[in-house]
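Quick one before lunch.
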Amino acid sequence: MQRLDKLIASQGTLSRSETVRLIRSGQVTVDGAVCRDPSVKYQESCRITVAGQELNYQQYVYIMLNKPAGILCVSRDPKVPTVVDLLPADMRRKNLFPAGRLDKDSVGLVLLTDDGDFAHRILSPKNDMVKRYHVRVDAPLTDEHCRAFAKGITLADGTPCKPAVMTVLENGDEPLAEVRITEGRYHQVKRMFGVLDRGVNLLKRVAIGEVQLDPSLKEGECRYLTDAERHSLGITE
Ligand code: URA
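Model of the uracil complex:
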């Protein structure tokens, strides 16, 4: 149960004061009847309409974004555009943040949510959630490099990484590799290749767990996760 004004404002598109104004002016109905009192408490499952539009209440939201290069993977920044700034106005909510970082120059799959427990679950190294990347490097790759990933690379500062999978998708002067890791250390993939004397020219995250970057999303576009994608990440509500 929540106060009507709080329940509506929590969905992100209206401020609390705009919500109160709409309620007082008779533009909000609950289960078919107009309610002009913002302080009355209702169940989230009630059928609510606001200015004729049905409110589809969601406690938390889960959004997939195809991040372009040059965008910061944080909620807010005074100077540089962030992943939250890319969301269309009707998908914004107060407490949205990226569940897991990509570097400013990295691209691809970012999950945005306001569910802190979920973010913790997918990011905790204890849960072994696989993150899959496509990586363009600046010199040929060999089986020896693949074996080094499988054994577990120790970063230049002595930090040991868990065993990971590196598969060469295209070889040559600028090979394309797929990397699967279950951790999320700062610049981890770039630093792993750095140990093998390979520079990273392009890094794109293509999957988190079973959720793959939707190929129909152009850079900068986003959509809500489907029910199947949410279930695959252990979201039960
Ligand atoms: N590893 C990196 O080095 N950079 C990223 O953006 C993600 C993983």
